[in-house]
Design brief:
The two termini are 39 Å apart. The protein is an all-alpha fold and 367 residues long. The longest helix is centred in the middle third of the chain and has 34 residues. Helix 1 packs across helix 3 and helix 8 runs parallel beside helix 12. It has a single domain, classed as MFS general substrate transporter like domains (Growth Hormone, Chain: A).
Length: 367
């Protein structure tokens, strides 16, 4: 996350000069190279170096995913593109869970390779997927700078444009802050939820493996709800005022995350409706802020703005991981959820204010 924080704004600004394709393809090739050598490191220093390279590839790819969504979507179908991108990301996470985590065992059991070699083959398989995706990006994206950029400004000027956009346009600032919160939402669910429910199951007398299974089933409810909701939200997103949808998304997420703090038994039946609300809220905030920043970003500064947007997301991940971990231990396992719920609630109030402000430029939304 530190690498993403340091590099994302620069990457976004550079893409306004060089174009999206070269950075997107380059990022995927960096990912492929890092995965290819990941299984062959011999000591901690080499491992850290490879992880830094991997993080750079993630940063390059992550910023360009957002930039491409902003560039290529017609305004009337932007929500659908973001929604189906959310589905693709969810399917990718599912593929990791049901296939790639089992791949080392498959290599050992079916092909009889040693365990260390199985790990190397798994990393090489990931490298192959990244390389294949780089080819898709090379074929599918337009080369060169975006056509709406007619002058080559210095990178520092482009970076300043990304900062100034948040200062001058309250809707872009709302999107930046929502990126911080949306990535925090994902950390809370991905990091602390499984830990909390696994510990609760063990405290209730379950064996560790059974407690993990129960926690995994409840985690799956959140993920499946988000996956099913994403395309539905995409169609809604193209038929509503984007700031209004951002406001509603933050409100739903706040209800879910704060509500989980009042559940007396995390393994009880009352948890199920809250998990559905969290799944809907998490996906809604993530999609709504991406659509809002795409709508509001001026064409000449889209890369710079998406870089700042990605910066906000990385900062949210780092903040919630650090602070959430501390209050998980010192206050209680529900504390990180309530904290991120309060962040959502505060932004909900700000979104109400922003919604009342006039549009900064004409926007076409499908009716």
């Amino acid at each position: 996350e530190i690498v993403l924080i340091v590099t994302s704004t620069l990457i976004g600004a550079m893409s306004d000069r060089t174009g999206r394709r070269i950075i997107f393809v380059g990022g995927l090739l960096v990912l492929a190279a890092a995965y290819a050598i990941y299984g062959y490191v011999d000591d901690l220093t080499q491992l850290i170096i490879v992880q830094l390279i991997l993080a750079l590839g993630i940063s390059l790819s992550n910023v360009m995913i957002i930039a491409v969504q902003v560039d290529y979507a017609d305004e009337g179908s932007r929500g659908k593109l973001v929604g189906f991108t959310g589905v693709a990301i969810g399917l990718g996470q599912l593929l990791i869970g049901v296939f790639f985590t089992r791949l080392p065992n498959i290599f050992v059991d079916r092909f009889g390779v040693p365990e260390l070699v199985a790990g190397e083959y798994t990393a090489l398989t990931m490298a192959g997927f990244a390389f294949f995706t780089a080819i898709i990006a090379l074929i599918g994206l337009k080369p060169g700078p975006p056509p709406h950029i007619t002058e080559h400004l210095p990178v520092r000027t482009l970076f300043a444009n990304g900062v100034a956009a948040g200062r001058d346009n309250p809707r872009i600032l709302l999107a930046y802050l929502s990126a911080f919160v949306s990535r925090g939402d994902m950390v809370v669910v991905g990091t602390f939820f499984m830990l909390w429910l696994t510990q609760a199951g063990i405290a209730a007398g379950m064996p560790a493996d059974e407690a993990t299974k129960v926690a995994g089933m409840r985690f799956a409810i959140i993920m499946m709800t988000a996956l099913v909701w994403a395309p539905i939200l995409g169609f809604i997103n193209d038929r509503m005022d984007r700031t209004t949808l951002m406001m509603l998304a933050l409100g739903v997420a706040a209800i879910g995350y704060i509500g989980i703090g009042f559940i007396p038994d995390p393994l009880g039946a009352l948890m199920f409706p809250i998990l559905i609300v969290i799944g809907i809220g998490q996906m809604s905030v993530t999609s709504a802020c991406q659509t809002l920043v795409g709508q509001e970003a001026p064409p000449a500064a889209r890369g710079s703005i998406t870089g700042m947007f990605a910066f906000g997301g990385a900062a949210g991940i780092l903040f919630i991981t650090k602070v959430g971990g501390g209050i998980y231990d010192s206050v209680g396992p529900a504390a990180p959820f309530v904290l991120i719920g309060l962040f959502n609630a505060a932004l909900f109030v700000y979104a109400i204010f922003v919604r009342r402000l006039p549009q900064t430029r004409p926007v076409i939304v499908a009716g």
